[in-house]
Specification:
Length: 483
């Protein structure tokens, strides 16, 4: 098995119900050396295992004040930030327990509002209306709102400490711009787990075709794109013998066309958009290695005939793809952690893997986080000290209660089929990557020409890049200057 340092979020897996309160008491505040540890590489200490993470927020009595959270409805993630009563569902009960603990600690009332996914938050702020303290919005909308000076940099909010291990330092470094953190991802943002990609494999097919121990391949660093290609070709079959391949046959790999390329380039440790020494974005799609990875994705899917691209693209993980996978009609299924639950009634056993390395020389496996929701603080907020205190406490309490419920109990205990998959889930979450070109610039890159190139099996990437540099320059010019 992999010898690895636990990431901060996944340390929280073992912390079943610890509270973030009483942080002002002697012995509760981490020492300087602990605070300076990398949040995504900090080891679980004995104290953390016993007491959970602690925040440094003063225990203030806010006399029943409402903390208003606006979020959006989306079929690919968990949208709820609060529930009215416990129902017996481990994950949703954890939301209830977290919120009631924060309400009791600060004497507040948490009010969640789920709105339509249409970017309406900006209009509310532009109208000068103080309608919410925090809004969880799409990453694309968050960027636009920041460019339009509608939100406050989260690092400038009182009581927020982004060095704490319940904030994801690696992800936040990847999404900052011009050395500014206009948004930040923490344990409160559970959609980042929902939108983490993985590969599901059909264990029946793997055993029937003697493909070996899939988990051992990962452990030994030998699960590469070439190995995956070899395995997919073995299972490809015209099941009904009609000399054509369609929804009635068996395939190697099923996925939404927009997700294939970014899944493979990120798995290879590449990004379409990198950042320079000034934390400004630049086009990495002209690099030799990116182009090698780009072409390899076509070679192992279209050139071998193992990819079925005519499924209905009705969701991030298409329903037809899920149905065919459950019917033993594909060896691999592209999936997010959220959609693993959709296969809980699948009779055939399946396992969970990271996407493959580009080659064995690659240092580790990387997993993609596609678009994400993040908390923004509107400029109409009249009490940022209060907002920062409660948001910080919610992130801490989420790491101690909601993340364990989601990951350890709901995902590991409820949906995955074996202990090896549990270990793969940890590996996947340990090495998550966010690519600006796949998220905040997805309308210009991923959902623009990348998705259409792959859907039509066209590989002339260079011709599509002519306009990217101009778009990037406009993108950079709109970045607000640091005060």
């Amino acid at each position: 098995m992999f010898k690895r340092i636990l990431s901060a979020f996944l340390i929280a897996v073992i912390l079943l119900s610890a509270s973030c309160g009483d942080s002002g008491k002697s012995g509760d505040t981490p020492g300087e050396s602990e605070q300076n540890q990398s949040p995504d590489q900090v080891e679980a200490t004995e104290t953390e295992a016993e007491t959970g993470f602690k925040d440094n927020v003063p225990d203030t009595n806010y006399e029943g004040k409402e903390f208003r959270i606006r979020t959006i409805e989306n079929a690919n993630v968990h949208s709820d930030v609060d529930i009215e009563e416990q129902t017996g569902d481990t994950y949703f009960d954890s939301l209830y327990i977290r919120n009631r603990a924060i309400e009791e600690r600060f004497n507040i009332k948490i009010v969640g509002n789920i709105a339509e996914d249409n970017g309406g938050e900006a209009k509310i702020i532009m109208a000068g209306e103080d309608a919410f303290d925090v809004a969880s919005v799409r990453c694309t909308h968050a960027l636009t709102m920041w460019e339009d000076h509608l939100v406050i940099n989260i690092e400038d909010i009182p009581n927020i400490d982004l060095t704490k291990p319940y904030w994801s330092q690696s992800i936040n470094e990847s999404i900052s711009l011009a050395n500014q953190k206009y948004v930040a991802i923490g344990a409160f943002d559970m959609n980042v787990y929902d939108l983490t990609f993985c590969l599901l494999f059909n264990k029946n097919l793997a055993e029937s075709f003697s493909l070996g121990n899939m988990y051992s391949l990962v452990d030994e660093g030998k699960f590469t794109t070439d190995k995956m290609s070899e395995q997919m070709q073995v299972v490809l079959a015209d099941l009904n013998g009609d000399n054509k391949y369609d929804e009635n046959d068996r395939w190697g790999y099923l996925a939404h066309t927009k997700n294939v390329l970014p899944n493979f380039w990120i798995a290879a440790g590449e990004k379409s958009i990198q950042k320079d020494e000034n934390d400004l974005p630049y086009n990495n799609m002209v690099s030799d290695r990116f182009n090698s990875v780009f072409n390899k994705a076509f070679e192992i899917t279209y050139d071998t005939g193992v990819y079925y691209n005519k499924i209905s693209m009705d969701a991030d993980i298409p329903s037809q793809a899920r149905t065919m996978f459950a019917a033993n009609q594909s060896l691999f299924l592209d999936a997010t952690l959220f959609y693993i639950a959709a296969l809980r009634d699948m009779e055939a056993d399946f396992g969970i893997l990271p996407y493959p390395k580009y080659d064995e020389a690659q240092d580790k496996y990387y997993s993609r986080v596609s678009y994400y929701w993040c908390c923004v603080i509107p400029v109409t907020n009249e009490d940022t000290e209060f907002t920062g205190a409660i948001l910080e406490a919610l992130n801490c309490e989420s790491a101690n209660s909601v993340v364990p419920a989601y990951y350890e109990i709901a995902l590991k205990g409820k949906y995955s089929r074996d202990t090896e998959s549990e270990q793969m889930l940890q590996l996947i979450s340990d090495n998550r990557i966010v690519d600006i070109g796949d998220t905040t610039m997805c309308d210009k890159i991923r959902d623009n020409f990348m998705a259409s190139l792959f859907a039509s099996n066209k590989r002339d990437l260079a011709s599509k890049l002519a306009s990217v540099d101009k778009q990037l320059q406009k993108y950079i010019e709109k970045i607000p200057q640091k005060n």
